[in-house]
Each structure stands twice: as structure tokens, then as C-alpha cells.
């Protein structure tokens, strides 16, 4: 028995080494360079006459906003470039045309000088109109340039007074410029109409809407939004899909954005080598009022028009996006005589079934986000079970019975052989 | 008797070797601690989803009408359960809340059990939602929608609400835990890379730079992604083989009788 324990111990050591080696493949990826510009935030504050109302914790809306701004300016992370824009701060008259142009940059977007910014905020006096649309347009210009994340935080206590320019559509147009900008809105003691307008602005750009009743809520929320801007985010690359596969742009692995109008088809192409796997996913955002039944279809098609695989999704109810994805592993070539394997062109087509009521603008198209990953192909299964191994009491029983029967036969055979030997 | 002794030694060896390996392959979600505080914020899109480890409790203050996104890693053999709690403001009209789970390809994943959608009547102070996913498989055909190892997204949102409730403050809590299904769900084949979005376009690792990187999803399961090599099917099959051998010896002794006659020379 002693001679036997050595190989046994060796086997245990070998097994342990094997399992350890397999269990810890690669270390987690740690720090990676972002190569991104500083995140930019523009706070857009409504300084219209209605900000005089004293209904936030007993103080005026303006005083609450000022106090919140002071606290936010203290807590702003170093790397964030913060700017402040006002609307309705200067023109107190009755001329609507003048009042609707009244938006000014109080503090330019750039490295933050806290004292200077606070002094500027302290001078504000509730004055004029509420030109939300024009203010958003100018704020988007303030943030232009650089590839860091960009965020507008709009704080208002009244709906836009400068129709027919719908701030909702302004927000959509800003988003359609493809500069990766998010608008978050905060309503001070809002009524239902203001809530609807501000939430429409937020949803048009993938932002959030919050209604504010208390001063600490305002501080917390603005702080959170500024902090969120500081988080590194992957910025997608703008691309433009074509109406058919042969004119479609060729995409590498990465994250892309595009716009797709109602009823439109968008095609992209990906080059795939044998033995590689294509992973693609798409999400189409409903950035305007759409009917509550919708869907998206993503198809991988060969250049000859044969469908390889599709991903589809449908949904109903309120939604921000509808998304789906697909996976296409291209098998290894059986005979590799041709030398270098030629890449196959896979066409990816995206269609949606969003619909909108008459009167809803259909341009710009719905924002579409596309991820493409080309990785090595999977190890395909030759059997359903792992390595064809079995499991469970039935397997054990079958093996035991088979072994027992084999033993019986073997024993009977060997007894028969002895009997034959004896008779001879 | 010698054969029996050898066999039992072999069985023991197998058991010894298998036990630590089996313990390795099934990390318990509780290992990271029940009270592990998770992130206190939620993302607002797939791209900005906040990453949560399994077993962590993620919290977020949000507004009614927000679309809240989290993501978590799930590995082969796990059956994740997503639980979300929403604390509603004191006064509100009836609201329907829903939790949706998407896989790394943003495909919606079905819930086996759990109240995925719930309507909170006026005045209800909280809603509890749950979704028990299917068991994550190591491999599936490309045409199937089976859950695969990789990143999973959770979206929490109010599905229907009245305009008056838009933007009202709510507090949300999310917790993901998994049940280890083990060898019963072990399948042949494996993916070359888990279904983590952006895995093919990650920037190269740079040891000098420790600034937080911008990647779509970064978290891995506690012990890394499994290779798919190990399952308890090895133990079952090996134990079955050993038992079959024992049964064979027993059967042999039954028919062969007690040993060979003393005068028979070995090798006959």
C-alpha cells in the first residue's frame, strides 16, 4: 500500500495545479487611459419674474436656487468644467420678442473659480420671461467642442413662454447634432403642464426630470448630476447607415450612434473572418411621443440576401428604448488550402416598428445606438452534456447494473474455463 | 480482497481531488458579505448603467419616470434573481412599476418566476419586484435566446403613471443573487469570450495610468469567468465507473466461486 500512495499524492497535486491554473485565467483589467476631454456641465437657471414666489421652505425660489448653487459650486469635482447660463435675467419689459432673446452666460464653461462663480450667482435678481428653447440652444453652443461628456442641467419654475419654438423639439435637434449631450431638467414647485414639458425635454436627450419642493432636494439633485457628468463614459462614434447593404458603411468593433426615421431601414456592414464571432446589438430610443406598441428587428444577412440570424424585440407601454441583439459565429473553414481566409461581409439591417400620431415631427430620426464586437468564435458543442459526461442516480444505477452483469459473465466464463482445463 | 482495496483507494483519491475543485467552482454569492454596500446611483441608459456585484445592495435616489439601469455579471451555472424595491412618495396616484432584464446583447431575458410588473395603488408606500432568470448556460446556438455568461442589464421604471406624479422623488434598491445550479446545467461548448459588451474594443491595459477607464462593462464574477471545463458531472461519471467496477468484482466472485483451486498454477 505504501508504494501506491506516492502516485496518488502526485495525482492530487497535479489535479490541484490544473484546477488552480484554470480557475484563475486573467487578472481583472485595472486602469486604462480614457483619452477623453474634461466633462462639461452647463447649469441653466431660470431667473424669470416667477422665481420671486416664496414657496420653497418659506424662502423665495430664487433664494433657494442661490443657496443650492453655492453648495453645488463648493462640491463640484476638480475635473468638471462648469458654466452657468441664465434665462430671463435682464429684460423686464413687455416686448415678447425682446424677452425671448433674454439669455446670458453668467459664468463661462471652463475651469471653475468658485469665488468668482459665487459672486456672479449672488447678483441675480428675478426679472423677465422664460425663453427655455433659446437658452438651450445657446447652452449647447457653450458646451461645443471636446469629446468629453456634456450635460445641461435646466432649472426652471415655469413653462416656456416663447412659443412657437417648442423647447422639446429644440432638445431633440440638439441631441441630433450628435455631440453626445444630455439635458437633465428640474422643475421648481411644478404644475402638471411644466412637469410634462420638462420631462419631454429630458426624454428627448435621455436625461432625467425631477420635481423639486425643498431646497435640500435641489442641492442633492444638482450635485448628483454634476458628479454623474464626472464619471467616465464611453462616447459613441457617429455613423450613417445606408438604405441598402451595398452602400452601407463598414464598421469595426465599437459603439456607434445613428438616426433612423420612422419606417426607414438602416444597413451596416461588418467584415468577419472564418472562426470569428460577430456580436451586434442595437437599441432605438423613443425620444418623442410614440404609440405604445413598438418593435425592433435586427437581421444579419449575407451579401446575397440570405438571412443568417435575427434578433427581434417588441414591447408596449412607456419606454425609453427598445433593443435587441444577435450573435453570428462564422465556422472555421474545413479545407484551408486557399491560404489566407477571405473575410465574409455580413450585412446588418435594422428596422423598427415605431409609429407616431399625426403631428409628431418625424425628423430628425429616432436615435439608434449600435454595438459591434468581433471576437473569436466559440467552442461548439458536440454533445448536449458537458464533454458527454453523465450525472444522476439513473446513470449510477445503469453503470452498477452493467458492471455487475459483466462481472457475472466474466466469473461464469472463468469457472467454465477452469472446468474445461480440469476435464483435460 | 486486494482489488477491492485498490478500488476503494481510487475512489477516495477521486473524492479528495474533486472536493476542493467542486468548492472552487461554486462561489456563494454571500461570500462578499450580506451588508456589502453597493453603488448609490443608477445609470440612465445601457451605456451608462451602474455596475453592481452579485450580493451587493445597490441603492439610488431617483424620480418617478426615470429609467434606471444597473448591470451585473453572471456566470455559467448560475440562476440569478433580481429583486428591486421602490419606496414611493406619500401621496401618489396608481403607478405600475416594472423590472426588465437584458443580456449582454441587449436582448430581453424572460423571467421564470417573480412579480416583474406590479401596480401600486394610490397611497401604497412601496413596490417590490422580482425576476428569476433562467439558468445561465455556457453555450447555446446563435439562434437561441438562452442566457449566456456575461453582463446582464436591469432596467427599472414606472410603466404607467399620471402626469402629476412625474418627477416625484422615489428611493430604489436593487439586489442580485444567484443560485448555483451546478452540473445539472453543464453543457458542452463554451464561448471564447463572455457576452460582455465592448469586450473586443477595450483599450490596452496600461499599468501606469490608474484613472478610471470608460468601458461599457468591466465587472467580472468574483472568481473570474469559469472556463467551462469543470462540472460535477466528472465526479458522477467517475463515481459511476468505480461503482460499476466494484459491482463487476462482486458479480465475478458470485459466479466464479471463492478463489481458484489451490492446485491451479497462476496464469492458467
TrEMBL record, chain A:
<dbReference type="Pfam" id="PF13519">
    <property type="entry name" value="VWA_2"/>
</dbReference>
<keyword id="KW-0812">Transmembrane</keyword>
<feature type="signal peptide">
    <location>
        <begin position="1"/>
        <end position="28"/>
    </location>
</feature>
<dbReference type="InterPro" id="IPR051266">
    <property type="entry name" value="CLCR"/>
</dbReference>
<keyword id="KW-0472">Membrane</keyword>
<keyword id="KW-0732">Signal</keyword>
<feature type="domain" description="VWFA">
    <location>
        <begin position="40"/>
        <end position="229"/>
    </location>
</feature>
<dbReference type="InterPro" id="IPR036465">
    <property type="entry name" value="vWFA_dom_sf"/>
</dbReference>
<protein>
    <submittedName>
        <fullName>VWA domain-containing protein</fullName>
    </submittedName>
</protein>
<dbReference type="InterPro" id="IPR002035">
    <property type="entry name" value="VWF_A"/>
</dbReference>
<feature type="transmembrane region" description="Helical">
    <location>
        <begin position="392"/>
        <end position="413"/>
    </location>
</feature>
<keyword id="KW-1133">Transmembrane helix</keyword>
Amino acid at each position: 500500500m505504501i508504494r501506491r500512495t506516492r502516485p496518488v499524492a502526485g495525482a492530487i497535486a497535479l489535479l490541484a495545479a490544473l484546477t488552480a491554473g484554470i480557475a484563475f485565467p486573467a487578472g481583472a483589467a485595472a486602469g486604462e487611459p480614457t483619452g477623453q476631454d474634461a466633462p462639461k456641465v452647463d447649469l441653466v437657471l431660470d431667473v424669470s419674474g416667477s422665481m420671486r414666489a416664496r414657496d420653497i421652505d418659506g424662502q423665495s425660489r430664487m433664494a433657494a436656487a442661490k443657496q443650492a448653487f453655492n453648495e453645488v459650486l463648493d462640491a463640484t469635482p476638480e475635473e468638471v468644467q462648469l458654466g452657468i447660463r441664465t434665462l430671463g435675467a435682464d429684460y423686464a419689459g413687455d416686448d415678447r420678442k425682446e424677452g425671448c432673446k433674454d439669455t446670458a452666460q453668467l459664468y463661462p464653461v471652463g475651469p471653475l473659480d468658485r469665488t468668482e462663480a459665487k459672486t456672479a450667482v449672488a447678483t441675480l435678481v428675478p426679472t423677465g420671461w422664460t425663453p427655455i428653447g433659446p437658452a438651450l440652444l445657446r447652452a449647447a453652443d457653450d458646451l461645443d467642442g471636446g469629446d468629453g461628456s456634456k450635460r445641461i442641467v435646466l432649472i426652471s419654475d415655469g413653462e416656456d413662454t416663447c412659443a412657437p419654438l417648442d423647447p422639446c423639439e429644440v432638445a431633440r435637434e440638439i441631441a441630433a447634432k450628435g455631440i453626445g449631450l444630455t439635458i437633465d431638467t428640474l422643475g421648481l414647485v411644478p404644475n402638471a403642464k411644466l412637469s410634462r414639458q420638462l420631462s419631454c425635454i429630458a426624454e428627448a436627450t435621455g436625461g432625467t426630470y425631477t420635481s423639486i419642493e425643498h431646497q435640500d432636494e435641489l442641492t442633492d439633485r444638482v450635485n448628483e448630476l454634476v458628479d454623474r457628468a464626472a464619471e467616465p463614459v464611453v462616447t459613441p462614434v457617429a455613423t450613417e447607415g445606408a438604405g441598402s447593404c451595398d452602400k452601407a458603411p463598414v464598421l469595426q468593433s465599437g459603439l456607434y450612434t445613428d438616426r433612423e426615421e420612422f419606417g426607414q431601414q438602416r444597413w451596416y456592414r461588418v467584415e468577419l473572418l472564418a472562426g470569428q464571432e460577430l456580436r451586434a446589438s442595437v437599441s432605438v430610443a423613443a425620444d418623442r411621443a410614440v404609440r405604445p406598441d413598438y418593435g425592433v428587428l435586427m437581421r444579419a444577412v449575407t451579401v446575397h440576401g440570405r438571412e443568417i440570424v435575427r434578433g427581434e424585440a417588441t414591447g408596449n407601454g412607456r419606454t425609453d428604448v427598445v433593443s435587441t441583439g444577435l450573435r453570428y459565429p462564422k465556422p472555421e473553414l474545413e479545407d484551408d488550402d486557399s491560404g489566407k481566409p477571405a473575410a465574409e461581409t455580413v450585412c446588418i439591417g435594422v428596422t423598427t416598428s415605431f409609429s407616431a400620431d399625426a403631428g409628431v415631427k418625424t425628423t430628425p430620426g429616432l436615435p439608434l445606438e449600435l454595438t459591434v464586437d468581433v471576437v473569436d468564435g466559440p467552442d461548439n458543442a458536440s454533445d448536449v452534456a458537458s464533454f458527454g459526461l453523465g450525472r444522476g442516480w439513473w446513470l449510477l444505477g445503469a453503470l452498477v447494473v452493467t458492471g455487475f452483469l459483466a462481472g457475472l459473465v466474466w466469473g461464469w466464463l472463468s469457472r467454465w474455463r477452469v472446468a474445461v482445463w480440469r476435464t483435460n | 480482497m486486494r482489488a477491492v482495496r485498490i478500488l476503494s483507494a481510487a475512489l477516495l483519491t477521486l473524492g479528495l481531488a474533486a472536493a476542493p475543485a467542486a468548492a472552487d467552482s461554486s462561489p456563494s454569492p454571500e461570500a462578499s458579505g450580506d451588508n456589502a454596500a453597493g453603488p448609490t446611483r443608477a445609470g440612465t441608459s445601457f451605456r451608462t448603467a451602474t455596475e453592481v456585484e452579485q450580493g451587493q445592495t445597490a441603492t439610488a435616489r431617483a424620480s418617478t419616470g426615470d429609467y434606471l439601469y444597473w448591470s451585473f455579471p453572471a456566470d455559467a451555472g448560475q440562476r440569478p434573481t433580481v429583486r428591486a424595491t421602490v419606496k414611493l412618495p406619500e401621496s401618489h396616484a396608481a403607478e405600475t412599476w416594472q423590472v426588465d432584464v437584458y443580456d449582454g446583447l441587449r436582448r430581453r431575458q424572460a423571467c421564470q418566476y417573480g412579480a416583474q410588473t406590479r401596480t401600486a395603488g394610490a397611497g401604497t408606500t412601496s413596490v417590490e419586484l422580482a425576476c428569476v432568470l433562467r439558468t445561465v448556460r455556457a453555450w447555446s446556438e446563435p439562434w437561441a435566446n438562452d442566457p449566456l455568461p456575461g453582463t446582464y442589464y436591469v432596467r427599472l421604471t414606472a410603466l404607467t403613471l399620471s402626469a402629476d406624479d412625474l418627477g416625484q422623488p422615489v428611493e430604489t434598491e436593487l439586489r442580485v443573487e444567484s443560485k448555483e445550479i451546478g452540473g445539472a446545467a453543464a453543457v458542452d461548448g463554451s464561448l471564447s469570450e463572455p457576452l460582455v459588451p465592448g469586450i473586443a474594443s477595450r483599450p490596452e491595459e496600461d499599468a501606469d495610468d490608474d484613472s478610471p477607464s470608460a468601458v461599457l462593462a468591466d465587472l467580472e464574477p468574483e472568481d473570474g469567468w469559469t472556463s467551462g471545463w469543470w462540472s460535477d458531472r466528472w465526479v458522477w461519471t467517475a463515481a459511476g465507473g468505480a461503482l460499476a467496477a466494484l459491482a463487476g468484482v462482486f458479480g465475478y466472485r458470485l459466479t466464479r466461486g471463492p478463489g481458484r483451486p489451490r492446485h491451479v498454477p497462476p496464469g492458467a
